Amino acid sequence: MVGLASGSHKASKIAKGSVFGQMGGVVCVITVLTTLRFTNNWALSILLGLVMWLGSSIGISAIREKAANRAHIPFRKILAFAKK
């Protein structure tokens, strides 16, 4: 629906954001279970899980963005940089 109103580029960004959020959700669950196992503190486990969810989603997005930008560098420039 977003693609019809705002264009395919914006729809693509929204779809990627939802995937990164889901990947962050996996990190959140693992963090909550691990923290709960070691501390038995529900509040700390949930708080730490939410922080890790946000942090990992942003981190995955940043890594993916860097990889996408790196793919646009001409191969000759990469070879020239490697020879230095």
Radius of gyration from the alpha-carbon trace, in angstroms? 19 Å
Number of helices: 4
Mean pLDDT: 83
Which shape, going by the Cα principal axes?
Answer: elongated
Largest sheet: none
Total E-strand runs: 0
Return residue spans where pLDDT drops below 50 for at least 5 consecutive residues. Answer: none
The ordered H/E elements are: HHHH
* Category by helix and strand content: mainly alpha
Proportion of residues in extended strands? under 5%
Distance between the termini: 48 Å
Helix content: over 70%
Describe the structure.
There is one protein chain. This protein is 89% helix and 0% strand. By secondary structure, it is mainly α. The protein is elongated.
Main features:
mainly alpha; 84 residues; single chain
Task: Write a concise synopsis of the structure shown.
The chain is an all-alpha fold and 84 residues long. It has 4 helices and no strands.
Give the topology, please.
Elements: H1 2-6, H2 8-39, H3 42-70, H4 75-83
Helix pairs in contact: 2-3
